Amino acid sequence: MTAPEEVTVKVAAGHLVITTPGRVPQALRETVRALMLCVADNGLTGVGLEVAAMRRRHSKAHRQTLDRLFPPAYRSSVLSARFELRHGAAIRADLWSAAERVLAVLDGPGPIRVPVDAADDWIRVLGTARFLYVDRRDRPGRAPDGAAMSAFLGDVQLRIVTTLRPELPTGEILEEA
Amino acid sequence: MKQWQVVVHDDAVNFYAVVVDVLNRVGGLSYDNAIEAAKRIQETGMVAISSTSQHAAELTAVRLRGYGLDATIAWSKS
């Protein structure tokens, strides 16, 4: 994946301007689309047949990915199941909508331009998409396949956040600081 | 009434600055309290950021989890 220093983020005329090497937008598109397919509820998206086919092919992997994206909210499996019933569909729908908006601005040529008031979609989608590739508990020493992509997404997310809020303390990954 | 806590856990993924930002903007903590909470997460592995009704705790957890934070809900014994 692209080295983080090859990506720049700045604010200009009410937009975040994300400049990347040419191959990055395509990689981001593929990641965001994978996230959408993962969280889509059949019937929600108009791509229900595609989602259903993907899940038939990869049902176990899909379940594992969803578990990484949405870990239990309670220690109790009963309470976690109730939480899922109360909030799961809305969480997935909100994330899907944010990902759709992110995808829309990835289609154009040149630097990626994101209205500042839409930056939150990017912070959410980048933050969540990492779990397509890694688990919260993965340690650097036993990084799985996809760790580089996860690290790249996290770095872009960090650059967006600290560009918008330069007063924030810089620091490392949470557990390493 | 039974009180519930939103607990934010340490992880190997999120950056410190992002955690502070999300706790501040989304979790309802002041900037200073968000910094303090992020420090405590690093030091102790987790921090309880609110004690409230179960419904309110779930809504806060939903918002935080939407940014990739590891937020869970636990019964507050205090």
TrEMBL record, chain A:
Origin superkingdom: Bacteria
InterPro entries assigned to the protein according to its UniProt record, in alphabetical order: AosR (IPR018561)
Pfam families (UniProt xref): DUF2017
Name this protein carries in UniProt: Uncharacterized protein
Organism: Kutzneria buriramensis
Organism lineage string: Bacteria, Bacillati, Actinomycetota, Actinomycetes, Pseudonocardiales
Automatic annotation (TrEMBL), chain B:
InterPro entries given in the database record: ClpS_core, Ribosomal_bL12_C/ClpS-like
Keyword Transmembrane among UniProt keywords: no
Name of the protein this chain belongs to: ATP-dependent Clp protease adaptor protein ClpS
Top-level taxon of the source organism: Bacteria
Pfam families: ClpS
GO biological process, one term: proteolysis
Keywords carried by this UniProt record: Hydrolase, Protease
GO molecular function: peptidase activity
Domain Adaptor protein ClpS core: residue ranges: 2-66
Organism: Kutzneria buriramensis
